[in-house]
Amino acid sequence: MASVVSDHRGADRDEADRYVSPTVRQSVKILVSGPFGVGKTSLIDSVSEIVPLRTEEQMTRQSLGVDSLMGVERKTSTTVALDFGRITLGGDIVLYLYGTPGQRRFWDHWAGLAEGAIGALVLVDTRRLEESFEVFDQMELSDTPFAVAVNVFPDTPDIPLDQVVVALDLPTDTPMTSCRALDKESSIQALITLVEHAMGSARLAGAQR
Ligand SMILES: Nc1nc2c(ncn2[C@@H]2O[C@H](COP(=O)(O)OP(=O)(O)O)[C@@H](O)[C@H]2O)c(=O)[nH]1
Ligand SMILES: [Mg+2]
C-alpha cells in the first residue's frame, strides 16, 4: 500500500524556511517528470526548503518487469503518486514542485497535476533513453512548456546535449541542460532553465492574446 514517507534530511532543513518568505511576490507550480529511477524524488529532496511530501511504495515482486531496475539496481521503492516540495528563488519567486511519474500507467493523473503548472522539467537518463519515450509522448499531448535535464550518474556517457535532442526526437529549440539530482545547486540551475523558458512562453502567450 502506498505510504507517505518521512524525510531523513528533515533535521538539516532550516526552521526559518518553513514559512514562505514575506519577500515572495510570485508563486508558480512546476512539474518534475521523467521515467522510473531517473532522479525526480532525489531532485525535489535536494532543493526543497520544506520536508518533501512523498508517496512511495516498496518495490515488490509484482512490479518486476513493470519498473525496470537496469542502471538503478539499488533502488527499492517506486513513486506511485507524487513528490511535493518548495523552493524560493531570488527571494521573490516561490516554486511549488510536483514530482510526477512519467510511466504510461499514470497518465490519467496527468491532466489534474498539470493544471495550473507553468512548465515541466523532464529528467532523462541517457543510459536508458528509450524509457523516456512515453514521457515525451505525454508532453506532446499536453501543452505544458518543458525543459529537459539529463541527470548525470557516475557512469553516464558523455553525450552532447544536441545529440540527446536528436535521439529523443525533440523539437530543436527544446531548452536542454544537465544536472546532478543529488546536488542542490546543480538541481536549482536546472529548475532555473525551465522557469526562464516557461515564463518566456507565458509572456509570449500573453502578448499574443
Ligand atoms: N549517483 C547519483 N545517483 C542518483 C542521482 N539521482 C538519483 N540517483 C539515485 O538513483 C536512484 C533513483 O532516484 P530517484 O530519485 O528515486 O528516482 P525517481 O524514481 O525518478 O524518483 C536513487 O537510488 C538515487 O539515489 C544522481 O544525480 N547521481
Ligand atoms: Mg520517486
UniProtKB/TrEMBL annotation:
Q: Which organism is it from?
A: Frankia canadensis
Molecular function (GO) terms for this protein are: GTP binding; hydrolase activity
This protein's UniProt keywords: GTP-binding, Hydrolase, Nucleotide-binding
Q: Is Nucleotide-binding given among the entry's keywords?
A: yes
Sorted alphabetically, which Gene3D superfamilies does this protein's record hold?
Answer: P-loop containing nucleotide triphosphate hydrolases
InterPro entries, sorted: Gliding_Motility_GTPase, Gpn, P-loop_NTPase
Its name, as the record gives it, is Putative GTPase
Q: Name one Pfam family in it.
A: ATP_bind_1
Can the keyword GTP-binding be found in this entry's annotation? yes
Signal peptide per UniProt: none
Q: Which domain of life is it from?
A: Bacteria
Family, per entry: Belongs to the GPN-loop GTPase family.
